[in-house]
Amino acid sequence: MAKKVCMLVAEHPFLDSRVFKREAKSLKKLGYDVTMIVPRKSGYLFDIDGTPIKDKFLQQTFTYEGITIVTYDYEESRTPLSKVLSPESQWEQGFNNPLTKLGVAQDADIYHVHEYLSLFAGVGVKRALQKKNKAIKLVYDSHELTPDPFDSRTPTHLRTNLKEKLLIMLKEVDFVITISHSIKSWFLSQAPALPVEVIYNSPPLASEYTPKDFNRNQLVMCYEGNMDYKRGNKNKILDMTEICSKTIDFHFKVIGGTRYGDSFELPSHLADKVELTGWVDYYSIAKHMKDVDIGWIDYEDLNESLNRSYAMPNKFFSYLNNGVPVLVNRCHEMESFIRSHRCGLVLDKKEATAKDYANAILYLNQNKSLLNEMSLNARNVMKESYCWEKMEQRLKNVYDQLSGHEITFFT
What we know:
By secondary structure, the chain is α/β, with parallel strands linked by helices. It has 15 helices and 14 strands.
């Protein structure tokens, strides 16, 4: 009989590329019976940009692509889950929430949680099932550090409390999965005996890849993903396009875009220079990358966010997967990767302006042979080491260890 995995989700959309499209589907492929417990906001599941999905997925429980989906009310869960900040003696009150209750009802073998609050729910599940004489395994998939030690928007006393409670919860975690080696090192500095594995936010290897042609006159830069207060600065995109277009045939493509309720208005004189594809199907991203020459990532306020310095976002690997060199400011983890694999260009500035990026773009336009070399390196490193097929093998090893199976080592 297949072991049952239950994923507990407190914040993410249920079709999240990491949670559903990669990990859940890979675990099903590996032979596990997979259930996801996911939140509805205002009665509806929500898409990756936050848009409510009102025309489907309306049942409380349903099956989608072989994964069982169980839903609960987001708003009803928030107050009890916030009890994680209370003294541990009061946690039992917090476990009286829909996510924990539904998790207990699943009676699974392995629980895989994806955020700080779903970790709290998972601890509640583990304790409740222990009372029923059932031992389960708990996996914390830490997509980022919570609390972020540098985030000044969170008061110091709250960060201290969040960290204290995290360290208590980690005592009940059987395995941590995270998205960068820097975050792995942070966890090991707090709990040296804790098993931790890095599983990057990599896509499956793009099957229709063809090497880029950098001999054409036009240069296309791309931003993929969410545009919000900390990512995908609209003004920088417009300013870069304005500056570069005065010298070269430059175009900017945005794959994804703003969150639900927000918009990106283009000035009329740049309407033919900036393409907004909107949110596209996850598996069609490679098609939209075919004419892209450079991928852009810019993280601001790095001194106020350890997460941004340690980030290895989906878009980073999406660019590389399609042979697109990455242009980024000086973010520790991405900088190390790019310099090791020569697959992009790092500006030697933590706070880079549109003018800084424009100068780099014009430099690369004058050095097409360098762009070509970086492009080939990007694709090769994904094919050899970092595509999701390689990450799936790491996920398998984690679950083999949790299940007491013999571990397979891959190169």
